[in-house]
TrEMBL record:
Its EC number is 2.1.2.2. Keywords: Purine biosynthesis, Transferase. N(1)-(5-phospho-beta-D-ribosyl)glycinamide binds at G19, S20, N21. One of its GO terms (biological process) is 'de novo' IMP biosynthetic process. This is Phosphoribosylglycinamide formyltransferase. (6R)-10-formyltetrahydrofolate binds at R70, M95, R96, I97, L98, N112.
Amino acid sequence: MNNAISAACKVVVLIGGSGSNLQALIDAMPNSHYEIVGVISHNPNAFGLERAEKAHIQTTVVDHTAFAERSHFEVALHEAIQHFKPDLVLLAGFMRILSDTFVTQYTGHLLNIHPSLLPKFKGLHTHQRALEQGETHHGASVHFVSAELDGGPVIAQTIIEVGEDASAEALQQRVLKTEHWLYPEIVNWFSNGRLKLSQNVVLLDNQPIPETGLQFTFTEIEGIKQ
Ligand code: GRF
């Protein structure tokens, strides 16, 4: 990985589905200091691939079903990523669990967005589980990736109130909207050299951030109407 970021930070986005976060990252690119140089999907039918092509971004499919072993899939994935020589790799709806060996190669250069207030609700069906647990607040987190599923130091979270009559789908949509603000913002911090991981501690402007990550309630997020 190239640590000297002077020109635009080269970003590769790994997807597996709709790619609405990818779209938000693409849309924010003209006013940012990063360039998405490649999009890689483990799913050949991911709609996000069409979004990337429309934006003239090079795409690669590394179809996980074509590999009998995860280690072989990860070797192919690593090669596909390295082709783009990125400064930063983003997981955005990439639905494969990555091994310790894989993740360690990218320490400090691999981010994920997860639709819950981590460490709550790791894994799937986060919105439904938040409702079932009677949570009053819910949201999304961006974190540096460690080998633990949805683990690794949290950088920032968006927090919304759960309405009393909320459905999982409605909650998902509201959280997703905040994700579209959060991810480009954080990628920009990284691209401007403001955000770093040092000995497993998140530094923003050389200052450690709170363990929960920085927290933004929706009222603080300009332009987001809930
Ligand atoms: C998002 O909710 C993200 O937090 C999670 O997967 C979903 C991806 O959605 N990791 P999209 O493909 O970006 O629309």
